[in-house]
Amino acid sequence: MSKYEAVIGLEVHVELKTKTKLFCGCSTEFGKEPNSQVCPVCLGLPGSTGVLNKKVVELATKAGLALNCEIGTYTWFDRKNYYYPDLPKGYQISQVFRPIAYNGYLDIDVNGQTKRIRITRAHIEEDPGKLAHSGGSITNSLASFVDYNRSGMPLIEIVSEPEIRSGEEAKAYLEKLKAILEYTGVSDVKMEQGSLRCDANVSVRPVGSTTLGTKTEIKNMNSFRAVQRAIEYEVERQIAVLEYGDKVVQETRGWDENRGITVSMRNKENPDYRCFMDHELTPIELTREWIEEVRATIPELPDSRRKRLIEEYGLPAYDAGIITSSLALAEFFDATLQKFPDAKTISNWMMSELLRLLNAGNMELHQAKVTPDGLASLLNLIKKGTISNKIGKEVFEIMFKEGKDPEQIVKEKGLSQISDAGQLSQVIAEVIANNPKSVADFKSGKEQAIGFLVGQVMKATKGQANPGVVNKMLREELTK
């Protein structure tokens, strides 16, 4: 690998968050019966002509501005001609020659270093239909079925410059891009539903060379981790091909998640799409005033929010980065902070407990039953000494699964912290009597012995004793 450099460019297709399709009134709702959300326009029937959805132009402009792009004031649609079963017209409506947004950039952080990845263009296009294969993938299927519900859905395709140098950088780019699009409300960016899809163009070249190598295009990656793994594998594969003395073939390759390899799908040598302007569709003319009106609707973006959490609330950069990585987490944090004004404590609980449970259950935040108000109430109970931190974690798990109020859980399960000296004195006396060696160690100056004794009291009270009170009472007894 030290002899070679990876050159990676990403093409990201983002489904825009509209109620109707790009050129017709068909619903964009996900998961409906196949071919139930179609009409002559999105089926490409002869003689049908669509009307442009204005909301698509607004969202595309908003996305371009959020990605630091220039916005074209005069653009149009083109026909990109190719044949595939999911493309009923035999061509795709896109913006080949005059994209709505161009010359943008996105900054990523990898291993403590900030790197700027330039964005070549972001253009509007229609989605084709969707193939459902009889087997696990197109490479091992005997038949494929076509669902045209997705045909005509509005997309923006965001194309990066080939400035990404590793799978790790690609993953960081996609995570940042997803967050920006989510914050702006441009898309729901759900990879599992296909509203965010990524193709990677990968090549390698000798270190120091400025000539691009032969690239392959990788498809069928359904997670950011899959994108990273696919790129890492493909880079190693291409290096092995070159080291063996062969040439890399320009082709489309699919990612096989189960085997962890890319597999050849079809040759892609110099494709000719015969693109030309679609004269049946009216060009788009935007005024500078309208563009600025759209800019004014862009909310606080991840980088600005991260900076605010660091500067206003003193959060470490790592904490702020995790919290602002998704809009849902950032809003959960802000809502909790309204009821419990201790940013670092909230951050600690979100990163250690909330994210742990979400990851363990492979869940999104909206699927958890815990609320910001619930977490704030729990942290107030711990702060008042009603329950210990350890008991708090047990209560939080119940809140996460059942959505119950923490005070109700504590009451029902009898989890209140024991701070009464009268209740603790007998337990402390028994622990001192049963652990003479630790008592002797403490009296001889071994400070750590007190920790063991406190632990024994906590064990005897099933974690309900107030550790601060226990520590104080033990010291008083042992220094008499």
Automatic annotation (TrEMBL):
SUPFAM superfamilies: GatB/YqeY motif, Glutamine synthetase/guanido kinase. Keywords: ATP-binding, Ligase, Nucleotide-binding, Protein biosynthesis. InterPro entries: Asn/Gln-tRNA_amidoTrfase_suB/E, Asn/Gln-tRNA_Trfase_suB/E_cat, Asn/Gln_amidotransferase, Asn/Gln_tRNA_amidoTrase-B-like, GatB, GatB_C_1, GatB_Yqey_C_2, Gln-tRNA_amidoTrfase_suB_CS. Residues 331-478 form the Asn/Gln amidotransferase domain. Transmembrane segments: none annotated. GO terms for biological process: glutaminyl-tRNAGln biosynthesis via transamidation; translation. It comes from the Bacteria. One of its GO terms (molecular function) is ATP binding. Its EC number is 6.3.5.-. It is an enzyme of class 6 (ligase). It catalyses: L-glutamyl-tRNA(Gln) + L-glutamine + ATP + H2O = L-glutaminyl-tRNA(Gln) + L-glutamate + ADP + phosphate + H(+); L-aspartyl-tRNA(Asn) + L-glutamine + ATP + H2O = L-asparaginyl-tRNA(Asn) + L-glutamate + ADP + phosphate + 2 H(+). Allows the formation of correctly charged Asn-tRNA(Asn) or Gln-tRNA(Gln) through the transamidation of misacylated Asp-tRNA(Asn) or Glu-tRNA(Gln) in organisms which lack either or both of asparaginyl-tRNA or glutaminyl-tRNA synthetases. The reaction takes place in the presence of glutamine and ATP through an activated phospho-Asp-tRNA(Asn) or phospho-Glu-tRNA(Gln). Belongs to the GatB/GatE family. GatB subfamily. Heterotrimer of A, B and C subunits. This is Aspartyl/glutamyl-tRNA(Asn/Gln) amidotransferase subunit B. It comes from Desulforamulus ferrireducens.
